[in-house]
Design goal:
This protein is 59% helix and 14% strand. It has 390 residues and is α/β, with parallel strands linked by helices. The chain has 3 domains: 3-207, Cation efflux protein transmembrane domain (Alpha-lytic protease prodomain-like); 214-288, Alpha-Beta Plaits; 303-384, Alpha-Beta Plaits (2-Layer Sandwich), CATH 3.30.70. The strands form 2 sheets. Strands 4, 5, 6, 7 and 8 form a 5-stranded mixed sheet that branches. A 3-stranded mixed sheet has the order 1-2-3, covered by helices on one side. The chain is rod-shaped, with a radius of gyration of 35 Å. The two termini are 59 Å apart.
Length: 390
């Protein structure tokens, strides 16, 4: 089973187990709260019932987020899980606000409950089961890298805490402080609102392309530094899309290597990031021939202008032609041209030098070339422009 299918299977398993426990606990707490005269426990039961809605959202978002990329979604469907998580958080907030409002009204009207031991026992059992479900679902969510499953885990934790609040309220009411039961229900509602708000906030941050943590970024730096022939790297940007993480980065390589070698180095960086860093889905690696992290003036493509100037100059020498394509090296403040020439006739060293000097003079007159290397069958000459670099 591949990692994607294993993650989906784990998420489904955790969601199904959560659904079964939520239905069972909601029914038990509602019955015990009604028979045991506890509004706090009834509120807790309704809280558990909302978990069914979030379980459904988690199930659907899991299924969509694990779909393969397609023409309309080339980066996959990972954000479906983030959206599902945000929905879960908003549902939790709404339920918490409703429960809080209901119990505030009950307090204002002076309702006093006298809960029985049945309500206390149900609250205690619910608290233990929900805490166990929190740890189980959290572990599955982290293993499956599922936002919605992790959100469901925190929903279980809010259930556990609300059951604890209900238990305290029931205990206080049993000791004669009858207002403690509805007061505990208010506390339960506020806890639910807080938990839902946190879930929604975290999901919203991911929808806004939040990046990796400082510790995770340091790991990326170490991986890139370990790749041979990467001279420097900078401008690392990361963004989350549900369970997926995408990276953009710049690497500096030697300016004199071939395009294919530079590409191979970039692909090595991409491979190592995907396979050595946790949870990296893909990386876009930009190749630099020098450190441009400070910025600077970049050249537009000048090949046509250089070729035109060279062609016009070579028109004076009918027996000389290009032996291979001109190679241009673009730097932030320099443009270097490598030119290879061949001749149908023999030339003396003095003649070859004169021809090379003439070609360099005409190319320097364009104002864009700052260094020229001319290779001829009689030898190699190199001359830098005496004018200041542009």
């Amino acid at each position: 089973m591949d990692a994607n299918k294993e993650s989906l299977a784990l998420g489904y398993k955790a969601t199904i187990i959560s659904s079964v426990s939520d239905v069972t606990l909601a029914a038990v707490k509602f019955a015990a709260g009604t028979l045991g005269h506890s509004s706090a426990l009834i509120a807790d039961a309704l809280h558990s019932l909302t978990d069914l809605a979030t379980d459904f959202v988690s199930f659907v978002s899991l299924k969509i987020s694990h779909m393969e990329p397609d023409e309309d979604h080339p980066y996959g469907h990972g954000r479906a899980e983030t959206i599902g998580t945000a929905v879960i958080g908003m549902v939790v907030v709404i339920v918490g606000l409703w429960l809080t409002w209901e119990q505030v009204i009950a307090l204002e009207q002076g309702h006093e409950n006298r809960p029985t031991w049945l309500a206390a026992a149900a609250a205690a059992v619910s608290m233990l089961i929900k805490e166990a479900m929190y740890w189980y679902t959290l572990a599955i969510g982290k293993k499956a890298r599922s936002e919605s499953v992790i959100a469901n885990a925190y929903h279980h934790r809010s259930d556990s805490l609300s059951s604890l609040a209900a238990l305290i309220g029931i205990g206080g009411a049993a000791m004669g402080y009858h207002a403690m039961d509805p007061l505990a229900a208010v506390i339960v509602g506020l806890m639910i609102v807080h938990m839902g708000g946190k879930i929604t906030w975290d999901a919203t941050q991911n929808l806004m392309d939040s990046g990796l943590s400082r510790e995770e970024l340091e790991e990326l730096h170490r991986i890139i530094d370990a790749v041979p022939n990467v001279l420097h790297h900078h401008d690392i940007k990361t963004r989350r899309a549900g369970r997926d993480v995408f990276i953009d980065c710049h690497i500096q390589v030697s300016p004199r290597i071939s395009v294919s070698e530079a590409h191979n180095i970039a692909e090595t960086v991409r491979h190592d990031l995907r396979h050595r860093a946790p949870h990296i889905t893909d990386a876009m690696v930009h190749i630099d021939s020098e450190d441009d992290s400070e910025g600077g003036r970049l050249y537009h493509d000048q090949r046509a202008l250089v070729e035109k100037a060279l062609t016009e100059t070579l028109a004076h020498y009918p027996d000389i032609r290009l032996a291979e394509d001109i190679v241009l090296h673009y730097f932030l403040k320099n443009l270097v041209a490598d030119i290879a020439l061949e001749s149908e006739n023999e030339h003396t060293l003095t003649e070859a030098r004169h021809i090379a000097a003439h070609i360099k003079e005409k190319l320097f007159e364009t104002g864009i070339v700052t260094e020229i290397n001319i290779k001829h069958h009689l030898g190699i000459w190199k001359k830098s422009n005496d004018l200041p670099s542009a």
